[in-house]
Each structure stands twice: as C-alpha cells, then as structure tokens.
Amino acid sequence: MMRKDDKLFGDIDWPLFITFLIMVCMGLATIYSVAFTQEHPSLFDIEKQYGKQIIWISVSLFLGLIIFLIDSDIFRKYAFPIYLFTLFLLILVLFMPPINGARAWIGVANLGIQPAEFAKISSALLLARYISELNIKQLTTSNVMFAILILLGPMILILLQPDAGTFIVFTSFLFVMYREGLTFDPIILKFINTYPRFKFKQTWVGTHFIPILFVIIFISIVTLLLSNLSLKLWFSEKSINGSMGVILFLAIISVIAILFIQQFGNKREKGRMMLIILLGFSLLGGLSFSVGKAFNSLAPHQRDRIELFLGLKEDPNGKDYNRNRAMSAVGSGGWAGKGYKNASVSSVESNHVPESETDFIFCPFAEEWGFLGVILLITLYVFMLIRIVFIAERQRSAFNRIYAYSVAMILFYHFAINIGMNIGFAPVIGIPLPFFSYGGSSIMSFSVMMFILLKLDSQRKDVLR
Amino acid sequence: MNFEGRRYVIIVFMLLVGLIYSFRLFYMQVVDDTWKLRAQEIAEKRKEIIPARGVVFDRNGQKIVYNRPYFNLMMVEDKIKDLDTVAFSKLIGWTVEDVRNRFKEIREGEGTFYNKYSQKRTSNYQKVRAYPFIKELTLEEILKIAPHLDNFPGFYEEVTSMRSYPFKGGANILGYLAEVNGEEIEKDGFYRPGSNIGRAGLEKYYEKEFRGFKGVKYVVTSALNNAIESYAGGKYDTTAVQAAPLTLGLDMLIQTYGEELMKNKRGCIVAIEPSSGEILAMVSSPSFDPNLLVGNRNIKLNYPNLLKDPAKPLFPRPLAAEYPPGSIFKLVQSLIGLQEGVITMNSGFPCDKSIVGCHGHPNAGSIQEAVQFSCNPYYYAVVRRIIQQNKKSSLFEDAEIGLNRWNEYMQSFGLGKRLDADVFGERPGLIPNSAYYDKWYGHHRWAFSTIRSISIGQGEVKLTPIQMANIAAIIANKGWFYTPHFVKSIGDNGPLKKFKTKHNTMVEAKYFDPVIEGMRRVVNENGGTARMARLEDIIICGKTGTVQNPHGEDHSVFIAFAPKEKPKIAIAVFVENAGFGGTWAGPIASLVIEKYLKRRVTDMAKEKRILEAVLQGGE
Asked: What ipTM was reported for this prediction?
C-alpha cells in the first residue's frame, strides 16, 4: 500500500503541523523564561530545562521523520504488539524505585521516560484497530467487553503507579467510543433480556452513556460534597454519612415514583418503568455508596485535594498551596501580562508555584502574557482540536478516524484539565499541558501521537475503505 | 444508525470549554483584583527598614543616650543540615538541653491557629522563615560565634541596634525600651512583632519623636522568603530617616552628682531652671543603672529583681511620691495671706505653743521672721485668716468659701494637680477643697479648727517633689513658672508647645520680696533653720521642712533657689526618714547648687559627711 508519488510531506496537513510547531516554540519560550537564570543565559545550556527541552524536541522531530519514512499501515498492523509492549513497560515500571511517591519512570536518574504517556498512543492504536474491524450494527457483549478491556489494562497499571491524572485521561476514549457508536448496550441488553418478559433491541441507557456519565459525575460530586457531613435522622439515634443520605434521598424518590406509576401508569409501561426505576436506584445508590467508601479510603493528601477542589476547604497556605499560588499567578497577569521573563510569582527561581515549568506551565505563560496571550493560546488549542476532528471526519478508513478522534480527545482532556487546574475549574492532578510542559516523555509522546496522525492523514487517499 | 452527527457534540464540547475558560480567564485576569492582591502578598514583600532611634544630648551637648550595634543569631530550620547539637551548644555556651528547649520555645512561641476544617490546631511556625535563635548578642559575644557559623548551615547573624547609657544615671527619667505587645501593634501601624517601643520615661513620652521615619523597600521574594530583586528597580522605595536628636535641659554633671549624694538614702532631688522650667536634675533614690534594662534579655533578667526590691528603685519618687510638704508649705501660705490682704509683711503673731508645738525662737514680728523661724503658731493664725474671712455669718459656710479660695491659689501654684511635665507617672498630690472635707465630715460640718493642720503642710496636704521644686522656681521668678520639662529642644525646634506657655500664679510679684528675704535669712542668718546649707559666695534662699512621719523617723525636706538675684537654679531635696530638714536636705541642696553654678564643690567636709551617711531608717 505504498504511496504512488513519493513526496514525503506532500499531503501533510499544514495547518495542523504549523499549529503544532507554533505551540512547541511557545512552550520552549515559556520554559526558557520561567527557568532562566543569570548563570545559564544560553538557550542551549543543557544544564537547564530549556536546553534539555531542545534535545527532547529534536528527538521528537527525529521520531517524526522516522514515522514519515515508514508505511502508515504499520501502526494498524502492529497495534497489538505495540500495545503489549507498553503493557510490559507499565508492569516493569512498577518495579522501579519511586520518584516523588510514584513509580512512573523508567530510566536512570533524571533521564527517564514515563510509559504511561506512551500507553495513551498504543491504546489509541489498538482501540482504533479493534473498533474499525467491528460491525458496529451488530455488537456483541464480548465486543464491548474487549474494547473496555483494552482500556482497563493500562488504566489499572497506571493507577498502581499511582498516576491519577493519566488514569483520568484514559476516560477520554469513552468519547471516541461514543462517536463510533460503540455502546454498552449489548451488556445491558444481555442483563435485561435474561428476564423472561423483556426482549429489547437497544436501551436508552446503553446508547447514551455520555449523558449518563454526567449523571454519574453529578451523583459522585454530590456524594463528596456531603461526605463530611453527618446527617441526623428524626427516627434514629445514629447519624448517617453523606453517601447514605444520597441513597436515602434516591430511595424516597424511587418509592414516590413507584407509587406514582402504580397509580397512573398503563399496564404495558408499568413493568418497564418499574425496572428502570429499580435499576436506576440500585446503580446510582451503589455508585454513591462506593464513591463514599472510596473517598474515605483515599490517602489523606488525595482527600484533601478533592475537598479543596470542591470548595470544602479554604486554606491558602496549606494544602491548597499549589492551586492558590497558581491562580494568583494567572490572575496577576492582567490584560497584557507582566512581560516576557517577568513572571514574579511563577518563575522557577521564586518557586512560589511548584512545577511551574512542567504541570503548571500555564501559570508563567498567563502571568507573562496576560489575557491577550491566554486567548491566543486557547484559540490555538481549540483550533487544533477542531482541526483534528475535521481531519478525522475526512478519513476513509475507520482506523484512521478512530485514531484521530482519540488524539483529539486526549489533547482535549489534557487541555481542559491542565488549564482548568490553573483557574480553579479542575482539581490539581498532575498532567502536562501538551507541547508546552517541560519533560521528555510528555513532548515525545505528544509529538509521536501527532506525527502518526499526520502520517495517517497524509496517506488517507491510499486507503481503499 | 448514523453516528456522524455526534461529531458536533464533540466540537460543541471543545468550543464550550474554550469559551468558558476564556470568560473565566477574562474575569480572573482583567475584572477581578483578588488574585492580583494575593500575588502581591505572595511575591512582593514590603520590607520595612526601621531607622536607629534618635539620640539624646544633655544641656551641655554631651551624648547621654545613643545606639550600639547588637547582633541576633538567626535560624532557618529548613536550611539546617545535620546539626551537631553538641558542637553547636558548645559554640554558643549553652547546654545541649538548652539548645533543644530553645528550638521548642521558638516553635511554641509562634502560637497556633485553629483550622476549622481539619478541626486541629496548627502552628504558625514555618520552617522556611528566619527566627532569632539568640537575641541581642554584644559584639564581643558574636565575634566568638560568627567565625564558626559556616559549620552550622541555617544559622547566621543579623545586626540590630540597642540603647546605651554611658552615664549610668537618670534611669527613671530616660526610661527603657521593650518589645511591643499585640495591642500596641494593632493601635499603631508603625510597629511589627518584635519591634521595640518606649516603655517608660522619656523613651515612652517622646516615642514618636524618637522613632523617626521608616524606610520601605519593595522586593520580589521567593517562596523561601529570599529577596530575588528589588521591585520595579526600586522606584517606590524610600529611605529610613533617623529622628532628630533630643536635647534635654538635664545637666548630667549634677544629675550624676545628685545620685551619688543620695546613695544609701531614700528620697529625691529635683532641680529646675526657674527662667525656663527646664529640669536640671531629677534624682530618685535608690535608682539603678539604665543599662540593666537594655534589650529583652536584660529586661527578663533584671526587671523582676528591680520590681521585687523593697526599696522600689523603679518607683519614680520625684513624680509619683506624694509627701506632706511640711514647713516649706509656709512659703505659699505667706504669699496667699499677703495677696488676700489678711496680713501685711509686718504682721506679727505670738508663738503661742498652746495651739501647736514649736521650737524655741523669738516671736515673729513680720513675714520675714516667720519664714526665718518657721513659726507654727504664726501660720495657724495666717491660714485661719485666709480660711475664715467672715464673709458669711455661719462659721462653716465661711470656711467653705475660704478653703475653696485657698484651693484656687494653690492650683495656680501647680499644686493639687498634675504639672503635666513630659513624663508619665506623675501624681497630682493633694490640695483639699470643700468637697473633699464634705466627704469626710459632712456638708458644713467643718471649719478651720477642723482642718488647721494644713496650715503647716501636714494633715491632708500632699505634694510631689517636683511640685516642691516648682514652688522654689515660682518664688525665684516672683510669681510665674513654665511647666517643668526635660526636653529643651526636639531637633532644633525647641520644646513642646505646652512648655512655652507662661503660667502666672494669683500672687503679685511685690508680695514675693518679703518671703524671699525670709528664705535668705533661713540659710544666711544665724536664727535660720538651714545654716548648714550656707555657701560662702552664693546667696541661697531656702526653706527647711521636717515632715512628721507617723511610721518612723521624720522626713527631711528643703527647697531653695540660688543665687538670690537672677536665680539660676531652684531645687527641692527630700530625704526620707532623715529627721530635721536643715540637717540633711539643706546641705545636699547646697552641694548640688554649688556644683551646678561653679561646676565644683569647695566644702569637702560637707560633701564627705553626706556621701558617708546611710539614712535608710525605719519603715
């Protein structure tokens, strides 16, 4: 399936590629500004983060060149071996000495890679390959189970590191599945249809699991918000905790709904309605219960983060240190910023915002360039994301499309969560801002992800189906 | 089923997040100032530079209070690495236990705050902050420690300044500095925890004049509180300005001489320049070395002892001790009698010992003689005439009018109220009025005979030594005074405004001459009571007093001014439990006067007798 004409970059999507390059340059400039010291004025000083980042960018571009030299079909063909290799790395990493409390790095000293970053790519490739070969219109239970298994493998291993941020990013594949029409319907149908009276072809729950996901998130947050409260009940001496309160509330609503249906529902609808209510109650109740339990069994620092995120705590010098400092840095940028190299709160030297060259790189950028710079950044990102969606939709092959969507959604998650945690819209979970944050694994994995996309897109016309 | 439409769901998600984030960022960066203020709080430190305190000169231009550099040994726990406690404690000369306790003390001294969410108390102590480990080390002490500090990362020295008093005198006048308390910090934005404030004496009264103007330096700081660079190139920085020096009216020569003379005695000396009201000396005995209360280390060490001392060295006797004035009060009674016209300078009264005891002397035929002999029955008669002027038929109503009139006169002499000098802790003394006796005896239930002991300065009447000295100054001035004060000039601006106002008494100048003549005779004529105060070439006009003390030996008191013409010094000497006024207070006053006017003392025998005397008789 080699291309007929040999122009290497002939069909490359220039708008996306140029946006990518602009972002990498902006990221490097920000790293140079934030980590700059008088003793190391050269951009190419490999003692400092900017010098190292240049090496990482060079390596990334080299990897990109290799990707463009090889046949794009390789990624489809070898998706499974690649996936297995990253799984192996993810297992291997668990036996490495922990750095900052997480076993996330493979390598020596500060020269290491994070397999979790690359697991995103291999999972995307395997998921694309698997879904592309499915007959979406006739999904079986095992199809869905296998798709979920592809994701759960790396997710569980990543959670063991632990790296909650990347774990959360993996849920971005749910959106990809949503776009492809891969639903949980078969599982749910199988479950329901065992009951002799029902014979459904599809369920609303299975088809629209994204809206349902939101309900789940909503219930979880309510549970967490109530987690610190102890509710006193009028009929009992014992007080109950938040999740029990949510369950009680759901039970009351369910009972009212059942009574309502018994009274007014017609015979045909009754059974189905009853089932939906009971199912809904048990699922949401179970969710609330497990969220409450899980929250209580979390490590204290993680619990603090959740509580801070939900606004249950206000402690500007304590545990909320990072977010408070980050938001101060961002907010102090003003309309046009303090000027390049003038970040007083978020420079590495001042160290008010920890990790300001990696996970919190949005801070110095926002502080130096102000609202105007930030708007440019957001515009670039949204343009890039929509461009990728556009590219995805013009693919002939389902594999290409699914992979492109995966890239879009992963980048979207990183963008939304990373900037969100700088402006108080997301909890502080350490995930990098793609193309900006300092770090070899980050820049390399996102570049490789991008170059594979560009390569697949450049050869989209060669694909027959 | 076609899923292609779902791409728009995803695109809408992306646009929505971009839009919401843009709005949020617009609000955070452009509209809302909260985060900007928070960022300033975090990164831009306003460093205050506290200038050295103003220095103090005496009237002869000698520096009597100045600042000496001291050193704090600072500690940043976060920077301490593998502290060798044994070596460190050896270096600073403490025990290992002491060093450990000090760490604990610093941590606990910072207090705690209650975190309502975690429901725990959390310490205010921060490992990255610098705290003084040892405060106020002298140069000699730090020189032993500083060269070895390289071996103990996390410790460094910091220079501060503290007061020094080269003359070791005037402790009760000068006061001392101590660390500010929370209330003071809240009241006045000038102070920060750990800064010093005048706690007594002039240091307290002239706090604002002493402290100068703080400088401000804006710096960009790091999370470890280290300054990285100055903010905006130092555009908003201001320099600290030390306050202008204060010049006192005090003459350190006679102040220290007076303290020497009063050693082993209890009492005080107050000397005033009559023409200006400037206080030349104010000795309170027993006293203490003001250097004992320099720095919080010394205060902690010495203050409790000073406080516990039964002789009360901290008690500013000249201002706060209220004594019956005794016979020196007769001077004021004479003046009031003359002004009221109830007597003339030639009025004579027999020395009728049946009314009140007196010592053997001829009958006084005039005011001059009455003063000279200090005749008690004479003043009973004079004050009876002042109080009972027969303006009302009722004896009691008449006494009420008379006493209140008398009280007005006394007030005009600055008696019975605070003089309002430039020190704290001054007491008003007591000059009774009708309301006072009404409370004791009932309305219209008293007359002169009830209250007659006030005639000779006994009974209810009480004066502070500074008021006694002021009486001498008034007589020297023939009827007026400036409020006694210490500070002659703040910088070059002269004294406070209130010390430039002349206060006139209700007695005309012409009535002072006979009294002054009497005072001259007290010292310079053979019948006088203070012959021991006589000087060969200086005419001292004085008056002795012997204050009856129900608790023990009588108090010896003497007020005087000199020379008779163009008086330069007015003085009051009060020696507790020393007996007759002419024996002790008189000679002490004459020595101080001579020292002041001639800068030296001629009668060495007199001086020797005073210096060797130990008068701390019965309580």
From this structure: 0.81
- Chain B nearest-CA distance from A76, in A, is 22
Mean local confidence (pLDDT), B515-519: 92
Tokens (6 digits) for B340: 């009221």
Q: What is the pLDDT of residues B422-440, one digit of tens each?
A: 988 899 999 999 999 999 8
Q: Provide, as residue numbers in chain B, all residues whose Cβ is less than 8 Å from the Cβ of A136.
A: 3
Residue B296 has pLDDT above 50, yes or no: yes
**In this structure, what token pair is assigned to residue B421?**
């000098």
> Under an 8 A CB cutoff, do B17 and A416 touch?
yes
Closest Cα in chain B to A391? B7
Verify whether the Cβ–Cβ distance B221 to A393 is below 8 Å.
no
3-state secondary structure of B284: strand
- A210 to B1: CB separation less than 8 angstroms, yes or no: no
Structural domain boundaries of chain B?
70-166, 252-302+316-612
Please give the pLDDT value at position A451.
94
Domain extent listing, chain A? 1-182+395-410+420-465
Residue B123: beta bridge partners?
B112
> What does the alpha-carbon distance between residue B602 and residue B618 come to, in Å, rounded to a whole number?
33
Range B332-349 burial, b when 16+ CB lie within 10 A, else e: bbbbbbbbbebbebebeb
Chain A residue with Cα closest to B221: A350
Q: How far apart are CA A70 and CA A8, in angstroms?
A: 10
- Asked if residue B459 lies in contact with residue B446, where contact means CB atoms within 8 angstroms, the answer is no
Nearest Cα neighbor of B468 from B356, B555, B566 is: B555
Residue A189 makes CB contacts below 8 A (sequence gap 6+) with: A200, A201, A202, A203, A206
C-alpha distances (whole Å) from B231 to each of B45, B214, B220 are: 9, 18, 6
CA-nearest of B506, B498, B421 to B464 is: B421
φ, ψ for residue B479, nearest 5 deg: 115, 0
Q: How far apart are CA B584 and CA B603, in angstroms?
A: 15
Please report the number of interchain residue pairs, chain A to chain B, with beta-carbon separation below 8 angstroms.
Answer: 132
Instruction: Kindly calculate the radius of gyration of chain A based on its CA atoms and give it in whole angstroms.
Output: 25
Q: Do A328 and B42 touch (CB under 8 A)?
A: yes
Residue A228 pLDDT grade (very low, low, confident, very high; cuts 50, 70, 90): low
Residue A205 pLDDT grade (very low, low, confident, very high; cuts 50, 70, 90): low
The per-residue pLDDT for range B11-61, each reduced to its tens digit, is 877 887 888 889 889 888 888 777 788 777 777 766 777 788 899 999 999
Q: From chain A, pick out residues whose CB is under 8 angstroms from the CB of B21.
A: 378, 416, 419-420, 423, 425
The conformation of residue A36, written as its DSSP 8-state character, comes to -
Superfamily name with CATH number, domain B252-302+316-612: DD-peptidase/beta-lactamase superfamily (3.40.710.10)
Q: Flag if A382 and B26 touch (Cβ within 8 Å).
A: no
**Maximum distance among all Cα pairs of chain A, rounded to whole angstroms:** 82
Q: Does residue B349 register a pLDDT over 60? A: yes
pLDDT, tens digit, for every residue of B379-392? 999 999 999 888 88
Q: Report the residue from B24, B30, B223 with minimal CB separation from A350.
A: B223
Q: Which residues of A touch B44 (CB under 8 A)?
A: 344
A331 and B21 within 8 Å at the Cβ level: the answer is: no
From the CA of A380, how many Å to the nearest CA of chain B?
10
Give the closest of A179, A345, A416 to B39, CB-based. A345
* Confidence at B619, pLDDT banded by 50, 70, 90: very low
Chain B residue at shortest CA distance from A411: B14
Q: A260 to each of A253, A274, A391, how far by Cα in Å?
A: 10, 11, 50
Please state, in angstroms and rounded to a whole number, the distance separating the CA atoms of residues B266 and B289. 16
The stretch A41-51 carries a mean pLDDT of 83
Higher pLDDT, B322 or A428: B322
